[in-house]
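How a chain folds remains the central question behind the approach discussed here. In the encoding step, the backbone of a single protein was reduced to a row of integers, each denoting a local shape. We regard such an encoding as a compact summary of how the chain folds. The sequence in question and its structure tokens are set out directly beneath this paragraph:

___
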Amino acid sequence: MHQRKAIVIGSGVAGMASAIRLSLQGFETTVFERNSYPGGKLSLIEKDGFKFDAGPSLFTQPQNVERLFEDAGENIAEYFQYKDVPVSCRYFYDDGNILNAYTNAQQFDDELHRVLGEQKGAVINYLSKSEKLYKSIGTIFLNHSLHKLKTWLQPSIFSALKNVQLPYLFGTLHGYNQKKFINPHTVQLFNRFATYNGSNPYQTPGMMSLIPHLELNEGTFYPKGGMISITDALYKLAVKKGVQYRFNSSVQHIIHHRGVVRGVTVNNENHFADVVVSNADVYFTYKNLLKDDLLAAKVLKQERSCSGVIFYWGMNREFSQLHLHNIFFSNNYKAEFDHIFRRKQLYNDPTVYVNITSKMETGQAPKGKENWFVLINAPAHTQQDWEQLRQQLKQSVIQKLSAVLKEDIGSAIEVEDILDPITIESKTGSYLGALYGTSSNSKMAAFMRHPNFQSQIRGLYFCGGSVHPGGGIPLCFKSAEIVSNLVTQDFKKTIH
């Protein structure tokens, strides 16, 4: 009997998870990765005893990882361990207010009432609606292909759609939050969740109010060994399940003939397969691998998500006022997003996110020191002078953090590495350095991202942050599941 073959292009989280699932389905699976290491954005930077997660730093919905290991018949504890983090984030405002966002709704409600004078019960009520929205409409939209008729014919879709009230679709997330809270600081905090998928809270629909549920109701977690341990666990599992990895192997072309995928070309050599899954940015897949300028241009009709500038700072001392996740808010959030999305510029008073994994375990930084991952939202690359901008930004960030923390931050920086939209694009293959592919700044963009399959080429599929259901680790796992289900449906008569 012919052994069916699958090829996965790229080994980001979604690509790795897809490869494992295809192997479990009986495919002889090979992953081609242009880098010398797996993981894509989810990789590691080591410098002078400091360890930095290169990309994603927040771990939510561990059940997505657990389900993959369960489906593979493996005990996840042998590969991967994590622990609960009761404070999802510590927030700092320029007026001196500091608050902890607890993953216990009552605690968080009490905290917002105590620090910001927010109405008692406001957060509990908000998160209850967020949970209801996620469990009804969210699970359908995020777990299924929205481009297949059978999704819309499910009985559950009708009951779910009943929960889609007009404010969710026709109002913005900011407008929705403004009606729920009395303090502008609280509104700003819940507006932040638009950045989960690189969007603008003043444009993205109120439907995005389901996102806080993932972090504040379901919880925030820390993987032992840092985020790279997710990559390491997936790689180990993939190899055990027979997946072949070819590193330093750039795919040049996706081969197809008469509407059927045939394989890929790597280093001028053809590799044939029945299924090809692209974990590369969907724009580059069309532009470079399929040489289809028309479809590539179609992808660009949707607005790109924001990008970011990341400073990896090895600090020569510890800062007791900081937590694992910290956010220092801009004084004018609307102006900041206006600069990022409309003007395509950095704002002079940016919101700053600081992640410090050495707060959670030793070995992430030398003793008495800290590893700071400092992220600032930035516009996607459109010919800005990033060499100049990142130096200006560095001074703005140091000034802001020094003022809020009342310490000289600049003098504490011992080690530095920097990532900007240009280097994000070159290292991760994200078009224009957009961290989440397309934004969700229109009413339909949030739900109608590029499908996980190509209807004109049988056997060609897409996974990862640039396609449905979107960016971030949980959604990348979900895109791998969707691809796996599509392959099962498309090949069910011929898989043995």
Summary: The CA atoms of residues 142 and 363 lie 36 Å apart. DSSP finds 17 helices and 19 strands in the chain. The mean pLDDT is 92. The longest strand covers residues 307-315.
